[in-house]
Amino acid sequence: MKIDNYLAAMLSIKNIFPGFGLCIALTALAEGLQRVEQAAFGAVWLEALVLAILLGLIVRTFWVPGPAWRAGISFSAKTLLEIAVMLLGATVSASTVMALGGRLLVGIVAAVVLSIIASYTICRVLKLHGKLALLVACGNSICGNSAIAAVAPVIGAEAHDIASSIAFTAVLGVAVVLLLPLLAPVLHLDLTQYGVLAGLTVYAVPQVMAATLPIGALANQVGTVVKLVRVLMLGPVVAALAVGSARSAGQTRGLPPLKQLLPWFIVGFLALLTARGFGLVPLILLGPIKLTSALLTSVSMAALGLGVDVRSVASAGPRVTLAVSISLLVLGVISLFLIRFLAIGHA
Comparing C-alpha atoms, which of 328, 325, 327 is closest to residue 313? Predict the structure, then answer.
């Protein structure tokens, strides 16, 4: 029995290599293109993280990865992404977290709650049914696909609703990463303000890196911390929906598993953040950890691009398109209002 388990594990690892290798190749090409940019223009306009997404999108547009590639792409998009996020905990200064202040922490919670309510209302006005509206609202307001995946089983969502919701968050998530850096000069945002805006509007934690690194290191740190506080809202939201669904069905179901309420990589991030705060992470390791996190994130972004079919937007329906787009704009307005209301950044 142990031999069978060993062989199964080895076969599983072997299945990862084709897709994983493709993601690494795209990342290497992205890194090369970034160096070409630097040599040609004396500056980097598109970071390797963003280039990896674009290369993945281009490949996916002309070629759909078959079964042999999917395990490695999925591994790169999920597991490597989570490891990269966890490692970020060692690179974020505790003083940065404390600098957010109690008011901003309360503001982040308020922004998520208001966004869920506004997104759900928009979806219902546009005649989307309740479960699909909840998927869109939670995905838009918390963390995109991860929130949709966590909420779907709790509310009993249908497979086609899950698929259409994920299709839109995937496509719009990439669009936000590419377009958001262009707004920094237009809206006259400093690094802290832009970090807060990115942390509140970008769907996934690694995507926050892609959206903030081109602007500056401070924006990256602030955006990452704000986004992680936003991700932590997934636990209370899923728990509340679980309780609400149970009551509406006249049942007394317990809450979802703890790992669903609080993802392991968030626990790892907080553990490393705490260790860094107590000086338990040697300074000599910070550079290699940061580099490893950045490279793993680039590989994950290439995998993300490979998993997005831009044409899926057309098949999901105009009402869902409109609902998700308007919800995202509303989230942006809420975020900008929070920045101005709390007087973040500029003195």
Answer: 325
**Token duo for residue 288:** 């290699």
CB 282, CB 35: distance < 8 Å: no
- Residue 252 makes CB contacts below 8 A (sequence gap 6+) with 246
Angle at 285 between CA 281 and CA 287, to 5 degrees: 125
Q: Which positions ≥6 away from 107 have C-beta within 8 Å?
A: 338, 341, 342
pTM of the model: 0.66
Say how far apart CA 40 and CA 31 lie, in whole Å: 14
44 contact partners, CB below 8 Å, separation of at least 6: 34, 37, 38, 214
Q: Are 198 and 229 in contact (CB under 8 A)?
A: no
To which H or E segment does residue 339 belong? helix 318-341
Q: Which amino acid is at 242?
A: A
d(CA 301, CA 151): 24
What residue has token string 């076969």? 11
Over residues 144-196, the pLDDT tens digits come to 777 887 788 778 777 667 767 777 776 777 788 888 888 888 888 888 889 99
Q: CA-CA distances (angstroms) from residue 346 to 189, 194, 342?
A: 8, 11, 11
E strands, 164-318, are none
- Cβ–Cβ < 8 Å for 132, 319: no
Which one-letter DSSP state was computed for residue 307?
T
Tokens 């597991």 appear where? 79
CB 174 within 8 A of CB 307: no
The stretch 108-116 carries a mean pLDDT of: 92
